[in-house]
């Protein structure tokens, strides 16, 4: 197997580079005498790849510098490497693999970011910075060490791409629902990250063991026990992101001493409000709403506008870049899939975050455990929207950002498209 490591470094400083340097010094409370940011690529191929081909795929000779050795590493004291965990989608790698495939070369690629710095700050403080501001532990692995370490010195010769390793016997586990009480359910719920309520589980139990359900299972070659696969599929379908349980729940609103029962925020304030206005004002230009992937309104006698806006709050709280990217691409897709299909022409967005300065210098309030820093959320969401929209050729024509510390727990990420 032929393996290569290529590092690509921008020749010219950019505003993003300067912002990163300021971040390092602010968090480390120490001067950073030198900082270099590189993108690295790990390539594995059964056939050898000529260096000219590697350069052509990975490097823009006008603005990039191509690095394949560690001769100049003596000028740095520490490094931070951030790469995707095994099994996590790496879109840059997929694009590179396709570029090689067009040249008749099949290969496997992994990518990541490398930060080289010269500073007197301790390795521990650099590790804290990397975990808090550079990597996302949910989807990325972060390594920090001195440039004297063997791992760093030998990185161009000892190459290992992340790979998924399957453990266990691969057997499907089954459960007898009658044997699961609330205590056992809570244990299963936590271990398998089902995020279900006891009431939801009872609903599954009631419907699963009825006569019709059992007859259907028997007809399809299934026994009477629910499998772990079925249980997790139901939990995923009923998750907050898919089912919008909060948005569709019955809510008691207390305002100015008066209580009001709301049957679904969505049906009352979104769909209900639109339906009420449509009836009150007799709007002939409102051609299709809440019936297809997106709404359609008449612009003039020859042109209809297809409009869709949705939230991607929870995914963006976990992975800002990926959450926003799939949000904007999702509404682009909905425009293409409405009616006979519309042509996306513009994107719009609205974001709500906590103050990105919190909790840096001058903002010393402690962030709750388990939350990504507001700055990380802002940068990741912005980059995701940029890559998903503008780089698809669909310009973002307007938008808004609102800051309030109440959004530290979960940002609001509204993605919209007009076609």
Describe the structure.
- α14 packs parallel to α15.
- The strands form four sheets. This protein has a six-stranded antiparallel sheet. The protein has a six-stranded mixed sheet with strand order 11-12-13-16-14-15.
- Helix content is 36%, strand content 26%.
- With 419 residues, the chain is an alpha+beta fold.
- It contains 15 helices and 16 strands.
What order do the helices and strands come in, and which of them pair?
Blueprint: E1 2-10, H1 15-28, E2 32-45, H2 51-58, E3 64-67, E4 78-84, H3 91-101, E5 107-119, H4 123-134, E6 140-146, H5 150-153, E7 174-175, H6 182-191, H7 198-208, H8 211-219, E8 226-227, H9 228-237, H10 240-243, H11 245-248, E9 250-255, E10 258-263, H12 265-281, E11 286-288, E12 295-298, E13 304-311, H13 313-318, H14 320-336, E14 346-353, H15 374-388, E15 396-403, E16 412-418
Parallel strand pairs: 14-15
Antiparallel strand pairs: 1-2, 1-3, 2-5, 4-5, 4-6, 7-8, 9-10, 11-12, 12-13, 13-16, 14-16
């Amino acid at each position: 197997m032929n393996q290569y490591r290529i590092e690509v470094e921008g020749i010219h400083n950019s505003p993003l580079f300067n912002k990163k340097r300021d971040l390092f010094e602010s968090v480390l409370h120490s001067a950073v005498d030198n900082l270099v940011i590189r993108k690295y690529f790990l390539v594995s191929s059964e056939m050898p790849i000529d260096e000219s081909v590697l350069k052509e795929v990975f490097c823009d000779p006008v603005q990039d510098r191509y690095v394949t050795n560690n001769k100049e590493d003596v000028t740095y004291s520490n490094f931070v490497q951030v790469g995707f965990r095994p099994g996590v989608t790496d879109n840059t790698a997929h694009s590179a693999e396709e570029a090689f495939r067009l040249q008749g070369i099949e290969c496997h690629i992994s990518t990541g970011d490398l930060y080289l710095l010269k500073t007197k700050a301790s390795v521990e403080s650099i590790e804290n910075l990397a975990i808090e501001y550079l990597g996302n532990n949910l989807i990325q692995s972060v390594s920090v060490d001195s440039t004297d370490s063997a791992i760093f010195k030998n990185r161009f010769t000892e190459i290992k791409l992340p790979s998924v390793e399957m453990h266990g016997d691969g057997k499907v586990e089954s459960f007898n629902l009658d044997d699961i009480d609330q205590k056992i359910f809570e244990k299963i719920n936590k271990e398998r990250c089902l995020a279900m309520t006891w009431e939801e589980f009872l609903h599954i139990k009631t419907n699963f063991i009825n006569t019709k359900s059992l007859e259907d299972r028997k007809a399809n070659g299934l026994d009477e026990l629910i499998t772990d696969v079925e249980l997790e599929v139901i939990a995923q379908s009923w998750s907050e992101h898919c089912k919008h349980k909060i948005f569709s729940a019955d809510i008691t609103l207390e305002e100015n001493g008066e209580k009001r029962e709301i049957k679904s925020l969505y049906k009352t304030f979104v769909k209900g409000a639109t339906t009420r206005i449509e009836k009150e004002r007799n709007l002939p230009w409102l051609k299709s709403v809440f019936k297809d992937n997106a709404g359609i309104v008449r612009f003039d006698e020859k042109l209809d506008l297809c409009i869709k806006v949705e939230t991607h709050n929870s995914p963006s709280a976990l992975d800002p870049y990926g959450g926003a990217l799939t949000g904007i691409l999702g509404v682009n897709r909905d425009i293409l899939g409405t009616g006979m299909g519309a042509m996306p022409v513009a994107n719009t967005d609205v974001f709500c975050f906590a103050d990105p300065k919190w909790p840096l210098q001058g903002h010393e309030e402690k962030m709750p455990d388990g939350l990504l820093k507001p700055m990380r959320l802002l940068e990741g969401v912005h980059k995701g929207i940029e890559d998903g929209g503008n780089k698809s050729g669909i310009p973002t024509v307007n938008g808004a950002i609102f800051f309030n510390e109440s959004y530290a727990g979960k940002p609001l990420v509204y993605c919209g498209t007009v076609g």
